[in-house]
C-alpha cells in the first residue's frame, strides 16, 4: 500500500466534492492547502478541518487568475512540499426548456474555470513534483465527458479536455515518479447539481463520493470511476450508432441552469 499523502492541496474546497474531500483528508499530521472563492464557506471548512486535527493553509482565490494561484501554490510547496494536488474547482452550465443555445459568454466562463483553471492549478506542481521524483496529481472529470450531451455541450467539452490531458500526462509523468489519477464521478448530490432538473440515476452523497475517491487515490489508481454500472454504460455509448444515441438523447427531459459566471479574468 503506498504511503498516504501528508501535504494535500485542494481547489474548489468550499463546496461539493472538494469540501467533502477536505473533510475526509483532515486528520492529525496532515497539512491541507485549501482554496475557494467564497470566504465564509472557506472559513467554515478551514475551522472544520482544524477541529479534526489538520494544519490548514487557506486562500480565497479564483483558479482563473493564473498568476495568483501559481504564486500561492508555490508558496505552499516551499513550506509543505505537496504530495497530492486535487484540481476539483469547477462549475456547470447548460440548456433546458426554452433555451436552445448556450450563451457564448457562459461557454467561455466555464472553459476558463473548468479547463484553464485546471491547467493553472497543476502547472506549478508538475515541475516541482518531477524534480522530487514523487507526488500525485488528481483531475476531477465527469461521466458526462465520455459522450457529448445535447443539454450541456460546453460542460462536456471542458471535462473531455480534462480527461484527455490527464490521460496524456499519466505515462509522461510516471517516468518522473509522479502519479496521475483521473476521477470520473457520476451523479453526486451537491449544491451545483441541486438545481439541475433531470433523472439522476445512482446518485450518491458528496461524503460517499469523497470516500470512494480517497480509497482510489490512496491505491494510486489511474482512473477512479463510479458508479461502475453508469460508467460502463457511458463507455459503451460511443460504440452505438450515433443516430440511435442522438434520437434517444433528444427526448431526455433535462433543464440545466445557465451559469451566472462571465469570463472577466
What does this structure look like?
The chain has 265 residues and is of the alpha/beta class. It has a single domain (7-250), classed as Rossmann fold (3-Layer(aba) Sandwich). Helices cover 46% and strands 15% of the residues. It is built from 9 helices and 9 strands. A 7-stranded parallel beta sheet has the order 3-2-1-4-5-6-9, sandwiched between helices. Helix 1 crosses helix 7 (206-218), helix 3 (66-79) runs parallel beside helix 4 (104-132) and helix 4 packs parallel to helix 5. The termini are far apart. The model has no long low-confidence stretch (mean pLDDT 94).
Summarize the structure.
This protein has 265 residues and is an alpha/beta fold. It has helices at 16-25, 39-51, 66-79, 104-132, 153-174, 191-194, 206-218, 228-236, 242-250; strands at residues 7-10, 31-36, 55-60, 84-87, 136-140, 179-185, 188-189, 204-205, 223-226.
What's the layout of helices and strands?
Blueprint: E1 7-10, H1 16-25, E2 31-36, H2 39-51, E3 55-60, H3 66-79, E4 84-87, H4 104-132, E5 136-140, H5 153-174, E6 179-185, E7 188-189, H6 191-194, E8 204-205, H7 206-218, E9 223-226, H8 228-236, H9 242-250
Parallel strand pairs: 1-2, 1-4, 2-3, 4-5, 5-6, 6-9, 7-8
Helix pairs in contact: 1-7, 3-4, 4-5
Amino acid at each position: 500500500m503506498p504511503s498516504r499523502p501528508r501535504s494535500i492541496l485542494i481547489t474548489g474546497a468550499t463546496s461539493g466534492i472538494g469540501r467533502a474531500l477536505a473533510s475526509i483528508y483532515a486528520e492529525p499530521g496532515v497539512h491541507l492547502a485549501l482554496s475557494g472563492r467564497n470566504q465564509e464557506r472557506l472559513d467554515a471548512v478551514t475551522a472544520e478541518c482544524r477541529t479534526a486535527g489538520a494544519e490548514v493553509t487557506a486562500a480565497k482565490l479564483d483558479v482563473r487568475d493564473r498568476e495568483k494561484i501559481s504564486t500561492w501554490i508555490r508558496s505552499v510547496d516551499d513550506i509543505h512540499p505537496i504530495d497530492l494536488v486535487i484540481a476539483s474547482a469547477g462549475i456547470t452550465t447548460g440548456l433546458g426548456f426554452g433555451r436552445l443555445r448556450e450563451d457564448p459568454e457562459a461557454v467561455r466562463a466555464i472553459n476558463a474555470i473548468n479547463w484553464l483553471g485546471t491547467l493553472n492549478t497543476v502547472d506549478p506542481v508538475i515541475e516541482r513534483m518531477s524534480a522530487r521524483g514523487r507526488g500525485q496529481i488528481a483531475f476531477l472529470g465527469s461521466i458526462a465527458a465520455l459522450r457529448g450531451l445535447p443539454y450541456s455541450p460546453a460542460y462536456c467539452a471542458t471535462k473531455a479536455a480534462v480527461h484527455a490531458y490527464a490521460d496524456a500526462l499519466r505515462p509522461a509523468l510516471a517516468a518522473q515518479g509522479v502519479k496521475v489519477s483521473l476521477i470520473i464521478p457520476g451523479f453526486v448530490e451537491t449544491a451545483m447539481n441541486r438545481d439541475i432538473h433531470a433523472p439522476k440515476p445512482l446518485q450518491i452523497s458528496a461524503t460517499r463520493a469523497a470516500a470512494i475517491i480517497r480509497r482510489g487515490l490512496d491505491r494510486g489508481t489511474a482512473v477512479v470511476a463510479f458508479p461502475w454500472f453508469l460508467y460502463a454504460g457511458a463507455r459503451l455509448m460511443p460504440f452505438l450508432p450515433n443516430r440511435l444515441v442522438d434520437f434517444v438523447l433528444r427526448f431526455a427531459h433535462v433543464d440545466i441552469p445557465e451559469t451566472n459566471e462571465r469570463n472577466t479574468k
